[in-house]
Amino acid sequence: IVALLQPTSPLRSSARIDEAVRLLRRRGADTVVGVCPPAVHPWKCVRFSGGRMSYAVPRPKLPVARQRYPEALAINGALYVTRAENILAGRVYGPRVLPLVMEPWESVDIDEPADLALADHYLKESRRR
């Protein structure tokens, strides 16, 4: 079993890594990937081209209340636990992939200064508790 841990996701805990390994073993998965609820549902995402707006993903023809949207999760980049044979075959994901749902605060991915400030805020808050 191989754990891929991106350094830009510093708020994941060793307990979460252990949880992912247990999930992979217990459920016979090929890969476990860290996910979290997205900030915006994919049905709300749009594109602009040539002065026109279009939805980024297909939507139902009839209006659907936000509360009835299908579940969507975002890969958070915090952890990927996979079997070694996947890596040896040049891939991270095997055929059977399971999610490990993580909290938004532990899913912070530091790509720009605002992300670093957010991670710093969460670290300070966790020390106060």
Describe the protein:
The chain is of the alpha+beta class and 129 residues long. It has three helices and six strands. Strand 3 (46-49) and strand 4 (52-55) form a beta hairpin. The mean pLDDT is 95.
How would you briefly describe this protein structure?
With 129 residues, the protein is of the alpha+beta class. Helix content is 27%, strand content 24%.
- Beta-strand proportion: 15-25%
Looking across the biggest beta sheet, what order are the strands in? Answer: 1-5-2-6
> What does the main sheet amount to?
4 strands, mixed
N/C terminus separation? 34 Å
> What sort of overall outline do the alpha carbons produce when their principal axes are compared?
globular
- Could you state the order of secondary-structure elements as H and E? EHEEEEHEH
* Unreliable spans: none
Mean pLDDT over the residues: 95
Question: Could you tell me the number of beta strands?
Answer: 6
Number of helices: 3
Q: What structural category do the secondary elements indicate?
A: alpha+beta
Rg, rounded, reads: 18 Å
The amount of helix comes to: 25-40%
